[in-house]
Amino acid sequence: MIWVSCNHHNKHIEAKENLKHFHNVVDVSPFELLSTMTGHELIFLEVKNSSSEGFELLRAVKQRHAATKVVIVYHELDADLALNVLRAGGDDVISVNSNRQQLDECFTRLHTHTVNVESGAYEQRELSIKPALIIIDQNISAPLREEDLANACQYSPTYFSRLFHNVMGVTLKQYIIKKRLDLACGLLISDREKISSVATSAGFKDVSYFSRVFKKHIGCSPGEFRLKKHDVN
Question: Confidence class of residue 118 from pLDDT cuts 50, 70 and 90?
């Protein structure tokens, strides 16, 4: 990805910093862009407003490489901005204050951020929910709220829920239950803790609920599971 700034102020750009967390972003000056690009890059073109000289650069890019995707990143939104982007051939528009969720939505609109293992996009999307996965692993015995996990990834709960499902192939609730059942099975095999203690250690605060969930997913009660495993050993 290429970041080109046609704004003459060296300010902290939130959208740019968020991009750099998960992508290789190369800074290129407006004067170097046409000579360095190959036509296969995704370009983020930073402009002040609809009067920016960046729109002339956008036209030049599109004339040379029509298929190149160019996203306009604006500082000031005015009435003519969208029209100028459209006329110059821009592919999308985002604010310099765009957060990770808004950037992800931009990628989706551009069709460049699909779940594709060969291109590495899947790994990028998994990285975006990694903070939540770490919290789950480290706090599996504690209450886990979707809102807290979404906040850790800097996403809204609704978007986080959808993204988690897309990346992991299961809902957040299903993922947490599986992790807790895996822990419970290990505890049932390795020691002689009471079933109620195993339930608590695995994050199930209600032993009756634990027993119902365990039987639904494992096919037998926790006590029966323990007896079977001990008989085998």
Answer: very low
Q: Does a structural domain hold residue 35?
A: yes
pLDDT at 232: 55
User: Is 118 contained in some domain?
Assistant: no
- Reply yes or no on whether the pLDDT at 17 is more than 70: yes
Cβ count within 10 A of residue 112: 15
Cα–Cα distance measured from residue 11 to residue 130, given in angstroms and rounded to the nearest whole number = 29
Domain membership flag for residue 124: no
| Domain span holding position 92 | 2-113
List Cβ neighbours of 49 (8 Å cut-off, separation of 6 or more). 74, 75, 76, 77, 78, 81
**pLDDT (average), residues 166-192:** 88
Mean pLDDT of the region 145-174: 87
Tell me which of 6-10, 33-37, 106-110, 229-233 is least confident. Answer: 229-233
Q: Does some domain include residue 106?
A: yes
Q: Which of 79, 31, 85 is nearest to 62 (CA)?
A: 85
- Write out the two tokens for 55: 């729109």
Return the SS3 of 73.
strand
Given a contact cutoff of 8 angstroms between Cβ atoms, the answer to whether 94 and 47 are in contact is no
Q: Are 77 and 134 in the same domain?
A: no
16 CB neighbour count, 10 Å cutoff: 19
Q: Is the pLDDT confidence value at 191 over 90?
A: no
Cα angle: 98, vertex 131, 20; to 5 degrees: 40
For residues 152 and 90, state if they share a domain: no
